[in-house]
Amino acid sequence: MPQSFDMRRFASILLLLSLLLPLARPALAQGWEAGYANGRMIGIDPYIKVTRGGPIHSFEGAYIFTPRATADGYDAAYGDPRFRFGLQVVDLSRIRLKDPDFRPLAAPSRLGTSVLLFAAFERPLLRTPQGWSLDYTLAQGVSLNTHKWHRTRNPENEMLGSRFAIYFGAGLHVAYRRGGWEFRAGPDFLHLSNSALHRPNKGANAWLFQTFVRHYFDAASPDSLTRLQIPFTDRGFLVDVDYRLGLKTSVGEWLYDHNAERYGNPIRYGSYGLYASHGLGLGLLYRYSLKYASGLGLDLTHEPYAGRIEVQNPARPHDIGKTTIGLSLRHEARYRRLAATFALGIYLLRPLKRYALTDEEYGYYERIGLRYDFPCGLHTGFNIHAHRTKAYAGEWYVGFRFAPRKRKPIVPYHP
Questions:
Q1: How far is CA 398 from the centre of its chain?
Q2: Domains of the chain listed by start with CATH number
């Protein structure tokens, strides 16, 4: 049986708190913004047909600030980035979902409305003395969904399977500033997913065109990008050692019930509890600049449920190997004590792949996440472990980092 405790809300709150940790410091420039967006759903799943893909409307309000620069050089290296904390309401009520091969229904299923609480990192790429600028934005947060999947009332909303979901956004914006006012516009990508912490878990994706009006409390504006003046000479190797706690639901259990309903047979599970795995991550990275480090990782995972989980395979022995070994390419982009982490790997040992025909097994995997580094060398973070971009598990991890040889930092860090 899966774990009986419910960690889904805890995992979402932990992700949001991890966004706030590095930003609790005085701000240099502050302001607010209000925005509106119009867009369309992205139909990437061939099994779900959008029978009415009416426009998506989005409304946003956010608080903006530029962190006070420190002597570590990160703000100069990123061109004095800004942060946004806000609330976004995404109206998906005009979207209707219908799978023509599923059982007849009185009405198509709905997506409803999603309310997002988010934090965003905004990095300028270009800034002119005339007030024009170009920047990109990366955002993460949590969402509350009004119309989640329901077996009888909303059975074909396989995109949003839970009341709470994890939000990811990315955008590219052009802005014009005049005094304390700024007008901005550009395309944004929006993704909502419960990260395999609930079923169903296909995720909702959309393209939006955003327009904003922004007001800064300080009317003075920078004329050009700040550039890093001090050469980075603290290059060297870094070693990471991590313990991971993975949480997931079984797509096999979900598909068993889904297919049973499709053919008029009784379901077996009804609800889909969490399974827990334990992992060890070892990494050797080379830090070649203030912002970036890349290298190799060895990922070992023990899945104690491997012999019991639903795999939809007639050959289902109870002695399926429970240990997985993977080798991955790793990369991280760092800002102060916060790092965005990426990994692409191949499985060297994956016994479950032979049996888990419905668990999206392709022989390779991805990990994307956020990490916070404490001054003592310890770190903690949250990963999405995915197979071909589809979430396989959500992972919380804790670990430590050290340098094989002692290095002398080029710039001291003042928190």
A1: 18
A2: 8-224 (2.40.160.20), 236-402 (2.40.160)
∠ Cα 62 66 69 (to 5°): 160
Q: Is the pLDDT of residue 284 over 80?
A: yes
Of 35-44, 95-104, 131-140, which gets the smallest average pLDDT?
95-104
Q: Which residues of 36-68 are buried (b: 16+ CB within 10 A; e: fewer)?
A: ebebebeeebeebbbeeeeebbbebebebbbbe
CA pair distance 373, 40, nearest whole angstrom: 38
Q: In the predicted model, is pLDDT for residue 334 greater than 80?
A: yes
Size (the chain), residues? 415
Backbone angles phi, psi at 10, to 5 degrees: -60, -45
Residue 410, pLDDT score: 45
Q: Which residue has the tokens 């600030």?
A: 65
> Could you tell me which residue, 307 or 46, shows the higher pLDDT?
307
CA angle at 224 for the pair 223 and 228, rounded to the nearest 5°: 140
In angstroms, rounded to a whole number, what is the distance separating the alpha carbons of residues 279 and 244?
5
User: What pTM did the predictor assign?
Assistant: 0.82
User: According to the model, what pLDDT value does residue 149 have?
Assistant: 85
Q: What is the DSSP letter of 23?
A: G
Contacts of 123 (CB under 8 A, 6+ apart): 78, 79, 81, 135, 136, 137
- In the structure encoding, which two tokens stand for residue 331, read together? 């990369």
Lowest mean pLDDT among 177-191, 323-337, 377-391, 396-410: 396-410
Quote the CA–CA distance of 42 and 40 in Å, as a whole number.
7
Q: Please state, in angstroms and rounded to a whole number, the distance separating the CA atoms of residues 16 and 6.
A: 18
Structure tokens at 244: 């991971």
Q: Which are the contacts of 165, defined by CB distance < 8 A and separation ≥ 6?
A: 12, 114, 142, 143, 145, 192, 193, 194
